[in-house]
Design brief:
Order of helices and strands of chain A: EEEHHHHHEEHHHHHHHEEEHHHEEH
Distance between the termini of chain A: 40 Å
Structural class of chain B: alpha+beta
Largest sheet of chain A: 3 strands, antiparallel
Number of domains of chain A: 1
Strand order of the largest sheet of chain B: 2-3-5
Largest sheet of chain B: 3 strands, antiparallel
Number of domains of chain B: 1
Oligomer: heterodimer
CATH architecture of chain A: Orthogonal Bundle
Radius of gyration of chain A: 23 Å
Strand content of chain B: 5-15%
Shape of chain A: globular
CATH architecture of chain B: 2-Layer Sandwich
Strand order of the largest sheet of chain A: 1-2-3
Helix content of chain A: 40-55%
Number of strands of chain B: 5
CATH class of chain A: Mainly Alpha
Distance between the termini of chain B: 58 Å
Radius of gyration of chain B: 20 Å
């Protein structure tokens, strides 16, 4: 047999980063094409953690779906259930009491604080600065304890229900929240001091730059967009719930640099704004009941056939739920668009012509949540046809 | 930054120990939901809890009572809220681990 003579181009190789990788926390595969240490192409593969939540939601009654929807994401659980319930209340024409809306928004902002603190910790860990990681998680723990005292649970709060909330914030809790948030603010002053440090700045400045023109083309959302100089925030652009009346008690934070440092700094500044908003809301809470008197099983019986789309600002950006009820206690269709889906397309541009060592920090600076973003679509390129795979087919394939 | 690092060398650790003495925990919040407490004799068998349970952790028995499978429970608290005679409540017991699955079922 003749020895086959193939000329390999040894300088150009495809480097698989993930799905199991020490620095990426969730299963995602980045196929990075490298020429002499320089990245020339990035392919993102997402489908490792598909859970079929949209399909499951069509097979339960609405009272059960509230808890299912909350479990789409561990960090944005309040945002997901708030979005879903706002859509349902729109269909059923239910107006929740005013105090309930205040409590929902307070918990959503507390959740924004602990989500941003997590990102700060993860980025710090990726650049090797474990001190900042510990400090960020110290503050995060305080906020999670507060949420546990309000709702009884740290991660999935089970707080929202149709026509109000299930747990009240009484006078003792109000005083506790104000006290603990002062402690978080003190920690935050220290954290922003650490971020001014030369080691952090050398590692993050002008890494993963996303100019505002490209950001607008890729329609990125949330802190990633605001770090690139776009004024995109659902709380301002199409405000919902309590944000309508309290637009003036917090500012929209926009930084123009578009690099990793801007995206990290924007989180710190946003936590300051969230704290000031929570303090204002706690002072102005109206004295109404926290939920309408009707039992939840009776409410879901009278929800008519209808469809609604609801958009809120989750910690990571714009989150949209499309809900189509079937008139018989269930859903005909639920479609979720999480903020990671538009943001992850920006990773390719950010990594282009950078070094391999920049991959973890650039990827985690967009705050990806892979399991939220998974959809199953099979594209047949030859026949130019797209098939959506349902759970039954998926089971058969595995 | 360096002064902050040096200062925290002499501070008490923020970390909370899980189990210093048997039965002694960090304080558990009032609204915490642990293992279910079920009053078997008071139950009227309306099965509203079976209908509302998001996880399918409650199943009805032929004697018109219910069984709670704590291995499937997500501790949302809807069953305690909807019960018309209030026979379901939550304890503060969070150590619900067992190698035997039947230990995790609340019957009586």
């Amino acid at each position: 047999m003749d020895a086959r003579n193939i000329d390999y181009e040894y300088s150009r190789l495809i480097l698989p980063v993930g799905p199991v990788h020490p620095s990426l926390k969730e299963p995602v595969n980045l196929s990075v094409t490298v020429v002499n240490e320089e990245i020339v192409d990035v392919n993102v593969k997402l489908n490792y953690i598909y859970r079929g939540i949209e399909y499951l939601a069509e097979r339960r009654n609405i009272a059960q779906t509230i808890y299912l929807v909350e479990r789409i994401c561990g960090l944005c659980s309040q945002a997901h259930s708030l979005t879903f319930i706002q859509a349902l209340e729109e269909i059923a024409n239910i107006q929740p009491p005013e105090r309930a809306e205040f409590i929902r928004v307070i918990c959503a902002e507390l959740e924004r604080i602990h989500s941003h603190m997590l990102l700060l910790g993860v980025v710090a860990y990726d650049i090797g600065l474990d001190t900042l990681f510990m400090y960020a998680f110290k503050s995060r723990e305080t906020v999670m304890d507060l949420l546990e005292k309000i709702s009884g649970k740290r991660v999935h709060h089970d707080l929202n229900t149709i026509g109000g909330v299930r747990f009240d914030i009484d006078e003792d809790l109000r005083r506790l929240i104000i006290k603990e948030l002062k402690y978080v603010k003190r920690n935050l002053d220290y954290i922003s001091e650490v971020l001014e440090d030369a080691t952090v700045e050398n590692r993050l400045r002008e890494v993963g730059v996303l100019p505002s023109k490209i950001a607008e083309e890729l329609s990125v959302v949330g802190p990633t967009a605001r770090g690139s100089g776009l004024t995109k925030d659902v709380r301002f652009n199409r405000s919902y719930s309590v944000y309508r009346d309290y637009k003036n008690s917090f500012k929209i934070v926009v930084l123009k640099d578009g690099d990793c440092l801007a995206r990290v700094k924007i989180r710190v500044l946003e936590v300051y704004e969230s704290i000031s908003l929570i303090e204002t809301l706690l002072d102005n809470m109206p004295d109404t009941p926290i939920r309408i008197g009707e039992r939840i099983l009776k409410i879901i019986k009278r929800i008519p056939v209808g469809e609604a789309i609801s958009i809120v600002e989750a910690p990571r950006g714009q989150l949209a739920h499309y809900v189509y009820t079937n008139g018989g206690e269930g859903l005909k269709r639920l479609s979720v668009r999480t903020p990671t889906i538009p943001n992850i397309t920006a990773v390719k541009y950010m990594l282009m012509h950078r070094q391999i060592a920049d991959i973890p920090v650039v990827f985690s600076s967009i705050d990806p949540c892979i399991s939220c973003a998974n959809r199953v679509t099979v594209t047949d390129a030859a026949k130019n046809k797209t098939i959506i795979v349902n759970l039954e087919n998926l089971r058969r394939r595995m | 930054m360096i002064t902050g690092v040096l200062k925290s060398l002499f501070k008490k650790p923020v970390t909370v120990k899980y189990y210093t003495k048997p039965g002694v925990h960090t304080p558990i919040p009032d609204r915490f939901r642990g293992r279910i407490i079920y009053d078997y004799d008071g139950c009227i068998g309306c099965a509203l809890c079976v209908k509302i349970c998001p996880a399918g952790a409650i199943l009805a028995t032929p004697e018109r009572k219910v069984n709670f499978y704590m291995d499937r429970c997500i501790f949302c608290g809807e069953c305690a809220e909807i019960c018309p005679v209030k026979v379901i409540s939550y304890s503060k017991d969070f150590e619900i681990t067992s190698s035997d699955r039947s230990q995790l079922t609340v019957r009586k």
